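Work Package 3 (structural annotation) set out to generate three-dimensional models for the target panel prioritized at the project kickoff. During this period the team completed the workflow that converts sequence records into discrete structure tokens, so that structures can be stored uniformly alongside our sequence database. As a representative example, we reproduce one entry of 123 residues exactly as it appears in the project archive.
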Amino acid sequence: MFPRLANVDVRRIWVTSAGGVGAVLALIGSSSPTLPSGTPENTEWPFESVQGLIIEESQLNVRVLTRVVGIRQKYLRASSKSWLKRILLVNCHLIGMAFSKAEKELAALGVVLTEIGCSYSRR
């Protein structure tokens, strides 16, 4: 999709959206619109330098977020690279997985997940 983005030095991505952020997660997590089910062979992941992700005022499926980060972290660790260290969710509507579960899963991957003013519903 964006073959040269792997070489761009981006430290933080800030997403503000009234709707969902699925397209953004697909962009930072994969070169295809649908996320891979395992570790991709592609060595040119976009935004390999990102350390922080801030998502504001969005509806967010937390399960998809943890899946994207999990796939990326495992791949980049295998190639001795570091990626995301912190995710901040601000005034988001969270669906798909309990925040506490996502927080634990991401912590196991070395990522700190925090939220400010978010609401949650199971859908």
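The radius of gyration is 14 Å.
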